[in-house]
Design goal:
The chain has 671 residues and is mainly beta.
């Protein structure tokens, strides 16, 4: 009996030595999990006559070699395909023949077909992803995309600040001359073949001026004007009625007796009538501020300063009664493209033949008094006022200049253009009799609508003007936009973007989208949507605040990495990334029931239960660490102590066997 008991002890100790030795041997094996030997005693009994108090036992047996699934230390590497699980879970591997195993050893690589495989060639399992990013069934994880196709730019976001302190230029726009624009920025774009191009945006601040055009008639006498005919002017319609019917300017009418000599005055009367339909007609260019007769038979068109993008007005005659043809009658000449936007008032001083009389006479101009004497002529009085210009300007800041008209001798007061048409400084005389101050022969209305107005030009590859939504000229008959500048306006009280191409910015600051056409030579049908939200006009340096676009050229695969959530991401040389799949991690109801199968892997058993597969970071699964490996969880210090204990147990059982042998020998020697 004692021999058998000692032998079981030797066997158990030998197994313990084997387990401990195996742990020590795999102390550097990636993903290895240590084991411990668990023992149970052997107790033999009989049915009859047994008594537990008198039974010595029959020895020991190894009841289990238990796995310790405590996580090992995570060590970082330089290989993005090295994966470590920070928490619970196992990688699922498929040998390609239907064999499924599970491991914590995350040293993976790519095979010749781009599959992610373990060191022994088993395929790492994961969830596929469709184009929308939805998870697909479990399968082999693979780098299926070796290049990234080009994408044409379709969306651009651009915001900038234009320094409100910048001085507008009165030079004609030249894209090659920075002196002709206020601010410029160039942005890269890509066409549908992946070619990189540029779009240059030039901003031109509108100065304190308006454009005035003079329209001279061509062969008006040969028209054969008849009642029922009409004229089109900047999108508005002027109808012709019979001379016997008094034309009504409020209805936009002129008589069929209209001649070249009186045409301009009659059209001006239509425009200036408070009830005229011309200004209210659909299609009429409402940027026109004044229509007048220049006194020489020419029709003068004065645009609002905020127009900023003036195109010549064409006058057409529609011969409805006669041939039914349309004839252009105008020769357009721009008299003064930089006609001042200041309000101008002129005053005529008149002195009668008898001398002036009065004691201590003076002229009052706003808050300034200018002394005169009764011997002065009208011209002398104006000269005396001019001598006091500095004092007048200092006391009346709304006045920009005071001059004397060289041809009429009148006093001309020009106001600050920023004040528009509001200011009027009174001019009067005091303590003088005989002096008359009257309005002069001309008055110009002020116009401060230019403030915060910018032309925005877009040039493709610094040369070709792009179509960015410029509206067609009113009256042209065109219905689509054309190449050329559009207008941006800013709120001068807070510097925020106010309108884009005539459309208002929302209360939340979202700017209307600009559609850019013609920026993709490879596919003319492609357009780019430009968002200028966040653009401002503050009194600070002109800068680009944000600039993005969604196009890119063709790219080659340069690497693969994994996110903490297990997403396999392919990176390409064009800066793009593509999600190729998600690593699947397995968890078990009883991981201690897993069966070791070698190569640091386990297989599922009835005791462990079936694997539950989820992405990292969900359910019971830990997160994934890329470029990292989980080291063995073997504690060498503990294993060396366990080795000594196993050796001691073996020696003790050997001693038991030796002692039993000596006892037996003694018995055999008894005579």
């Amino acid at each position: 009996m004692a021999f058998s008991t000692a032998i079981t002890g030797l066997k158990a100790s030998t197994t313990e030595l084997d387990v401990t030795g195996n742990n020590i041997a795999n102390s550097s094996t990636v993903g290895f999990k240590s084991a411990r030997t668990e023992f149970s005693d052997i107790f033999a009994t009989v049915v009859v006559g047994s008594g537990s108090a008198n039974s010595p036992g029959s020895g020991v047996i190894v009841s289990d070699i238990a796995q310790d699934f405590t996580a090992g230390t995570i060590q970082f590497t330089n290989n993005n395909l090295d994966l470590a699980i920070d928490g619970t879970g196992f990688f699922q591997l498929n040998d390609g023949q239907g064999g499924i195993t599970y491991t914590r050893a995350g040293g993976f690589e790519l095979d010749k077909d781009g599959n992610v495989v373990s060191k022994n060639g088993n395929f790492l399992q994961g969830f596929g992803l469709d184009a929308a990013g939805n998870r697909q069934p479990i399968g082999n994880l693979a780098v299926s995309q070796k290049e990234s196709p080009p994408k044409a730019t379709s969306d651009m976001d651009l915001s900038f600040n234009i320094d409100s302190r910048a001085t507008p230029s009165n030079l004609a726009y030249d894209p090659d001359d920075s002196a002709t624009f206020t601010f410029s920025t160039t942005n890269s774009t890509f066409d549908s073949l992946g070619n990189e191009n540029t779009i240059k945006f030039d901003m031109i601040e509108q100065g304190a001026w308006r454009e005035r055009q003079s329209i001279s008639l061509i062969d008006f006498a040969g028209l054969g004007l008849n009642a029922g005919d009409s004229f089109s002017l900047a999108g508005g319609t002027i109808s012709v009625v019979a001379a016997g019917t008094p034309p009504d300017p409020a209805l936009g009418q002129i008589g069929d007796d209209t001649t070249a000599a009186n045409f301009a005055s009659r059209v001006a009367a239509i425009f200036n009538d408070a009830a005229t339909p011309l200004q209210n007609q659909v299609g009429w260019d409402n940027r026109i501020r004044e229509v007048s007769d220049d006194g020489s038979g020419n029709l003068e068109i004065t645009w609002a300063a905020s127009a900023a993008d003036v195109r010549p007005v064409v006058l057409n005659h529609i011969d409805t009664v006669g041939t039914g043809t349309t004839t252009a009658l105008t020769n357009v000449n721009t008299q003064d493209p930089f006609f001042a936007a200041n309000k101008v008032e002129s005053y005529a001083f008149s002195v009668p033949a008898p001398p002036l009389t009065g004691t201590n006479p003076f002229i009052t101009i706003g808050a300034t008094q200018v002394g005169i004497n009764t011997t002065m002529s009208a011209s002398d009085i104006v000269d005396e006022i001019i001598k006091n210009t500095n004092a007048i300007l200092s006391a009346n800041p709304e006045i920009d200049t005071i001059t004397k008209d060289s041809s009429t001798g009148q006093l001309v007061i020009t106001y600050d253009p920023e004040l528009g048409d509001e200011p009027t400084v009174p001019v009067s005389s005091t303590n003088v009799t005989g002096l008359t101050i009257g309005a002069g022969s001309f008055d110009e209305t002020g116009d401060n609508s230019y403030q915060g107005v910018y032309q925005m030009h877009a040039l493709f590859n610094n040369s070709t003007p792009l179509n960015i939504g410029r509206p067609p000229q009113p009256g042209s008959g065109l219905t689509t936009s054309e190449a050329g500048p559009i207008l941006l306006t800013f709120d001068t009280t807070n510097g925020l973007l106010q309108t884009v191409n005539g459309l208002p910015v929302s209360a939340t600051g979202s700017a209307p989208s600009i559609t850019i056409a013609g920026a993709d030579p490879a596919n003319p049908n492609n357009t780019i949507s430009l968002d200028l939200s966040g653009t401002t006009q503050f009194a600070s340096e002109s800068i680009v605040k944000a600039s993005t676009q969604d196009g890119f050229t063709k790219g080659d695969l340069i690497g693969v990495t994994f996110s903490a959530e297990g997403v396999m991401v392919a990176s390409f040389s064009n800066g793009q990334n593509s999600n190729l799949g998600i690593v699947a991690l397995a968890s078990f109801e009883n991981q201690s029931g897993l069966q070791p199968v070698g190569d640091t892997a386990w297989s599922a058993t009835l005791a462990s239960g079936q694997a539950i597969l989820n992405p990292p970071g969900t359910g019971l699964n830990g997160q994934l660490r890329s470029a990292a490996l989980e080291q063995s969880n073997v504690n060498l210090s503990e294993e060396l102590v366990a080795l000594i204990e196993a050796q001691r147990n073996f020696q003790a059982n050997s001693k038991t066997l030796q002692t039993e042998n000596q006892v037996t020998q003694t018995i055999l020697q008894i005579n």
